[in-house]
Each structure stands twice: as C-alpha cells, then as structure tokens.
Write a structure and sequence with these properties.
single chain; alpha/beta; five-stranded parallel β-sheet; five-stranded mixed β-sheet; 34 helices; 18 strands; binds iron/sulfur cluster
Length: 759
C-alpha cells in the first residue's frame, strides 16, 4: 500500500474526530474525557483534563459560560451537558492540581500589553512555551473587576496570578497604552501581544489585524479588534491563546496561517448514532452548585460521543479491538515488513468481505476493499501464509474436478437457453435440493436448461490470487460458451456476485427470482413455527433478490420475522471471505452471534448460511426445504455435514445425475476408496478440527500399503503411518479390526516435510 493511499484510508474513518463539545469549545477542552472522569468519581483526573487546556484553570473553570453546551449532542436527546457547572464543581472539589512544567527558556522576549483575559492568557501560554514574558498593565487586578464573580473570589484570582509570576512573567504595573505604541520599547522585545481590551488597533494606530493570525502591519506586533462588551470570557481567553500561538510561529519563522482552520470553534465530522438513546433531562443545578453525586449523575448523561458504528456491528472488527483508522495503519505497516512477523496477516484474512461496514459507516469506509487489496498485496509479494486459504482452494479444485463437475445441455436438448448453476456448496450441503431444483427448472422453463456443476471461483477471488481467479474465469467462460452462452440461474447469492465478475457479459438470474416468478407451480410444506429470515451477506446489494425472496415466502403463505440487521444491512454467517479457513474460532463466534439474532428457527437461501448456523446448534431451514420437501419431517434439525461428507455428496450428486438424468455411467471411483475404515469419536473430532478428509486418510493407508513403512506401538498394538500427498503431511494412528477394517484412533497433519521420509 502506498503512503498516499494509506492517508486516504485513514482520513476516511472519522472515529478520531473530536466530539461536538470539544470542537465547539473556543479552547477545545476535551469535554468527553472530562465527563468520563467526573462520572467515574475521579475529580482530580477530571481536573487534570481541564488543566491540560485551560490557562489559570482555577479562574477559567469558574467563569466559563460554556458556549459548547448548545452544540453538545445530548442537546438533541434531553438537553446539553451542564459543562460550566461541572467545571465549577470540579474546581471547587479537586484536591490536586497537576504541576506546571514550562519549557526551558528559549532566549526570546515577548511584551504583553494589557492584563485582561486575553493578555493574561497570552502571558500564561507564552511563559509555558519558554518565552521570557513582560506583562505591562495598569494594575494586577484590573481583569478581576471585569469577571463574573458568582463563583470567583479575589483570593482565587490572586493565587493564579502568583502561578503566572512563578512561571517567570514580569508584571510592570501603571503602564498605559492610550497613545501611540512606544516604538522604542517595542524594539526591546522579539514580539508584542496587545490585549484588545487594553489597547485597540486605533490606540496602536494600526489597521484591523488578521482575524486568523492576529498579525498586524507592524512586524512582530500581534493584536485583535476590540471585542464586544458582553463577549464570553472563554472567547476572550481564546484571543490570547491565538496571539500566543502566532507569536510562537513567528519566532520559529513558521507559517502563521497554515493549518489553523480549527483554532476557532468548528463543526466536527464525528458521527455518533443516537437513534437508540433515551432522552434524559439535565440534572438540576442546586443553589450551591453540584454535589459529588449530582455531578456524577449529570456527567453520566454524556454520551461519550464516538462513531464505532462499524465495530459495534461487526464481530470481526470488535474482535480485533480497534477501529478501521488504526487497522489501515496496521495493514500499511504489515505491507512494509520485509523480514519479521507480519502481525496483521490474521487481521487481513479474517474480514468476511461482507461489506456491512461500508453500508453502516457514515463515510462508507470499506474494510472489505482494504482487506482484499491487502490480500492481493501479500499474494503478489509471495508472503501470503499458505495455511490461510489452502483448504478452500483445494476444495474449489475438487469441485471443479472430473469427480464432481458437469457441464451439459438438458437431456434431449442440443442447446441451452438456460443453465442451472447450483455452485459447490449447495451440492455439498444438500444434493437432493439440487436434483429437485434442476428437475423443477427443466419442467418449467422452455428452450433447454443445461447444468453447470462446479465452483464459481469465489475462493480464488477472496484469497486475493488474481492469476488464479483469471484462470478460473477463463474456464468458467469456456464452459458457459460451450453451452451456447445460456442465461445462468445461480442458486447462491455469492455465486451470482462472483459470476458477474468472472463473466460480466453473461446474463445471470437467481434461482430465487425464478421460483418467485413460478411460485404458483410450487407446493410447499410450511414449518409449524415462525422462522426468522437470514439474508446472506452477498445478497445485500441485490435489491431484486431481496425483494423476490420476500414475495416468494409471503405468497407461499409463510409467516416469518426479520432480525434487526436484515436486507441491505444483513450480517454474515461467518463463511464470507473464507473466514472459516483463516480463523475458525472467529468464524464460530460470528455464526453464534448471528444465530443469537434470529428469533426461533432460521430460514435462509444460502447453503453456507444454513450449515454454519446449524453448526452452532441453531435450527435452520433452507427455503428449498419447504419448497421441495423431503421425507425428513424436521429439516430444520438437519446437522451440518462434515467436510468429508460434503465432498462425498458432490461426487454422489454427479454420479446420480449422470445415471438418472443423462443415463450415462460415471467415472469409476479411485481404488483407495474401497479401503474400509471406521473412526473413534476422537479421530472424527480431529478430522473436523484439522480439516483432514476421509480421502486423506485412505490415500495415506494406500501409500503405506505399498511401502510397508509402519511404526507400531507395542503397548497398544496401534500402528502409525504418514504420507505427504500434497503440501501437507498426514499422520494416521490405527488398529486393524474385523480382519480388513482400519479403525482410526487419531490423525494429525502438518506442513513440515519429514526428511528421509517416504514422500
Ligand atoms: S454528549 Fe458528551 S461527548 Fe458528546 S458532545 Fe456532549 S459533552 Fe461532548
Ligand atoms: S466487510 Fe464485513 S467482516 Fe469485513 S469489516 Fe466489513 S462488516 Fe466486518
Ligand atoms: S463507521 Fe467505522 S470506519 Fe466508519 S467512521 Fe465510524 S469507526 Fe470509522
């Protein structure tokens, strides 16, 4: 990933934008953190938050009139946070003020003319920055007389003046600025700030200073137009702060104006969802100000504004504990690693590519696009971990192999107006559903309905292997062309999406839209309970499909509910993006989460959604279960087939279709299939966890039958063998039973090669 594109990605996520209170505060006090600490009863920590930003905080916190209140997001749901009263409470109750640590002296001098709020602030800020400040004023307490004194006492004011003096500011009293500025005395300082309450531009014989920088035509002199009489104290303080910042830049020969768009109160881009926030009125302020309890209660009304919309709605993002702005940086860093551990690989390969985040994010941040680009990058660099997607890619090849694939016209036809494309997961999950659907389509449609039995190549696409996807797309196109470019009927929404990419010129329709069109011809058997509809995530942007499924179900007479996130905002079941291959535990967590969101039984139109939900113990139907009912009286209870069964289902489907539909004998099975095996429970558990197939075990036995290389445990009599048919070494521990059956006790696999081994 290029630096520029990283910046674009980072800028898109607005999670780190300030909350509205902070943006609206003329000094940009972090109201969110302040409220968080007060609500937690941490008064000193809350005070430290104020001290980070406020000059002479004991005064400022007591006189602030909180212009941020109207901008507070709580204003829309009950009333803005009473920030001014909370600040006062904090000032009155804190036990500890953090020590001030001015920067070391810089050897530069500044004169501040006037000791009202702008002048005092400039003196405070400049002294903190290490400048040697001389404050010219009429008398030290002239500012005090102008301040609201409901909460302020002269002693508090005096105390803060002492702090300013301790910071090294020299006070020169009895100064006047009623005439022209003494040019000579100005020459004694590197810069001058003129407090606009003490000396206006007219006094200074200058034209109106720059609003953004307070720069004047006199080099080194910074001033402001005279503020209105009833100007808010915090606005006056902000003038002094702006002057101090300009002087610092002036001394550093830096641009005075660059990047100052946010000096003033501004509109933040931060989005916070308040659609589910209950209105809550402000806690009334007692006559003597908030007590500890009432302050806590008021601060607890703060919404702690943040976005995190995508994270709140995606188990994957939540699992990785940060948010997309941070992820973009982690992924960028990952890409730049030449040697060493790429810690973000798991992050990159665990996204389900479901695109919910793009729909939910107010800025349309697409983690899907970020992660798929990152995957392509890893593949291109040759550093994609082989283990991430290997099983899925091998499964794709198997589905496309002679053992499972079919590409034929309808029996008795020389051409195909249509071609049914059930994908590879429906045949693996429920081969009868494929047979029934195909038979219905052949009976219903005219012009011939061919059958394309193979994988849509989504695993190649999702794993980021561009060359492989191109190769698979060419194969798909060639199959499609050999049938005369029929209209493709896809059973799976993911297939639809992938086929559109692979063969963009093909007309693709959904099985569900056709079933909807011909719904009068269907004789469904409806379930007894009301199921909840699970839209597959790949259907999210297919408005027609989403609508047709609902029309179909409704017109079939099925009552169903919808989870909160449905249709355009549906959640992935945990299969998308090959998550179950890259991060099985997370895939399970996602499936469990989704299952918990469906009231009662689920009903869906994606074989993988059904099977992954079923794996969590959720009762779930495929719509085909009610359209083409089988003898199974409780199809929602069907368990998810194991990996080996999924393969066997595909092979058997091909054999049965060839024999029953086309009356053609199928290819004989490989010899190793005749080996008799049975399994202990432990072995079966290992096989599922480690994705070791029956065929892997039988191939290992077959190989060892030839070499005779067997280890024997003389205590148990168990035999141990290994074989490396692909890039994986398989180990099998067995004992012979009933003369010719291999009872498998345990199985393992690893990527390491055994040196000196049989293969
Ligand atoms: S709700 Fe809290 S964080 Fe949000 S704007 Fe108001 S004070 Fe700030
Ligand atoms: S694409 Fe899906 S899984 Fe990936 S981050 Fe977005 S919502 Fe989460
Ligand atoms: S939804 Fe997510 S990606 Fe979008 S701005 Fe919010 S935190 Fe960032």
């Amino acid at each position: 990933m290029e630096q520029n594109s990283l910046r674009e990605w980072e800028a898109k996520c607005i999670q780190e934008e300030p909350p509205r209170c902070k943006a609206a505060c003329p000094l940009h006090v972090d109201g969110r953190e302040f409220c968080k600490q007060i609500a937690a009863g941490q008064v000193d920590k809350a005070w430290a938050v104020l001290c980070r930003t406020l000059p002479f905080p004991a005064v400022t916190a007591r006189i602030c009139d909180a212009p941020c209140k109207n901008s507070c997001l709580r204003e829309k749901v009950g009333g803005g946070i009473e920030m001014a009263d909370l600040e006062r409470f904090c000032a009155e109750n804190t036990k500890r003020t953090p020590p001030f640590r001015p920067l070391p002296p810089r050897g530069k001098t500044v004169a501040v003319l006037g000791g009202f709020l702008p002048g005092l602030t400039a003196a405070w800020d400049l002294a903190k920055k290490g400048f040697t400040v001389t404050l010219f004023l009429k008398n030290t307490y002239e500012a005090f007389e102008t301040l609201p004194q409901e909460w302020l006492t002269v002693d508090i004011f005096k105390h803060e003046i002492e702090v300013i003096k301790k910071m090294g500011v020299t006070f020169v009293e009895n100064s006047t600025f009623d005439d022209t500025l003494d040019e000579e005395s100005l020459k004694n300082f590197d810069a001058v700030f003129a407090d606009p309450i003490a000396c206006s531009p007219e006094n200074l014989k200058i034209s109106t200073p720059s609003l953004t920088t307070l720069e004047t035509e006199k080099k080194g002199l910074f001033a402001a137009s005279q503020p209105e009489k009833n100007a808010s104290p915090i606005t006056l303080i902000a003038i002094g702060r702006k002057g101090a910042l300009s002087i610092e830049r002036f001394m550093q020969n830096a641009s005075l104006s660059a990047g100052r768009e946010r000096d003033e109160p501004f509109e933040t881009k931060l989005f916070t969802n308040i659609s589910k926030v209950e209105p809550l009125a402000p806690i009334a302020v007692p006559k003597n100000g908030y007590t500890a309890d009432s302050a806590k209660e008021e601060a607890a009304r703060c919404l702690l504004c943040e976005c995190m919309e995508c994270v709140k709605n995606c188990v994957y993002l939540e699992n990785f504990k940060e948010y997309p702005k941070i992820f973009a940086r982690q992924i960028y860093n990952n890409a730049s690693i030449v040697m060493g551990t790429r810690r973000a690989n798991k992050l990159i390969n665990s996204c389900m590519l479901c695109d919910l985040c793009t729909e939910i994010c107010p800025e349309s941040f697409s983690m899907k696009n970020l992660c798929i680009e990152a995957r392509k990058d890893l593949v291109e660099q040759g550093v994609m971990p082989q283990s991430a997607h290997e099983f899925a890619l091998r499964d794709m090849e198997f589905a496309d192999s002679e053992a499972c694939a079919i590409n034929r016209h309808q029996n008795g036809f020389e051409q195909s107006e249509w071609a049914f494309f059930p994908g590879c997961q429906l045949p693996a999950s429920d081969p009868d559903a494929v047979k029934n659907s195909y038979s219905f389509l052949c009976d219903t449609l005219t012009g011939g309905t061919g059958l394309m039995l193979r994988c849509c190549s989504a695993p190649a696409d999702w794993s980021g292997i561009v060359d492989l996807f191109d190769k698979k797309s060419t194969e798909l196109r060639s199959d499609w062309e050999s049938l005369g470019k029929p209209k493709i009927i896809a059973a799976c929404p993911s297939c639809m999406e992938t086929l559109h990419k692979a063969i963009p010129e093909a007309e693709i329709t959904s099985l569900w839209s056709l079933l909807c069109l011909y719904r009068k011809n269907l004789n469904p058997v409806l379930p007894k309970s009301i199921p909840a509809l699970q839209d597959p995530c790949s259907a999210r942007h297919n408005e027609k499909l989403l609508a047709d499924v609902r029309i179909l179900l409704t017109d079939l007479g099925l009552e169903f509910t919808e989870p909160e996130l449905s249709g355009l905002h549906t959640e992935c079941c945990g299969f998308g993006g090959l998550l179950s291959d890259a991060n099985e535990p997370l895939s399970q967590k996602v499936a469990e989460h989704r299952a918990s969101k469906l009231d009662g039984d689920g009903i869906t139109y994606c074989a993988m959604c059904r099977d992954l939900l079923a794996k969590t113990g959720k009762r779930c139907l495929n719509i085909l279960d009610i359209i083409f009912p089988s003898e199974n009286t409780d199809p929602a209870a069907r368990t998810a087939p194991r990996y080996s069964t999924r393969r066997e289902n595909r092979v058997r489907l091909k054999e049965q279709m060839l024999e029953n539909v086309w009356k053609t004998p199928s290819t004989p099975r490989p010899a190793y299939e005749a080996i008799k095996v049975s399994y202990t429970e432990e072995a079966q558990k290992h096989m599922e966890e480690r994705r070791i197939l029956v065929s892997d075990i039988k191939k290992t036995i077959e190989a060892v039958q030839k070499t005779g290389k067997v280890l024997e445990n003389t205590d148990t009599g168990h035999k141990l063998i290994y074989h490396r048919p692909v890039t994986v070494t398989y180990w099998v521990e067995y004992e012979m039973v009933d003369g010719d059956t291999y009872l498998i006790h345990r199985v393992w696999s690893h990527r390491m090669k055994i040196l000196g081994g049989s293969k």
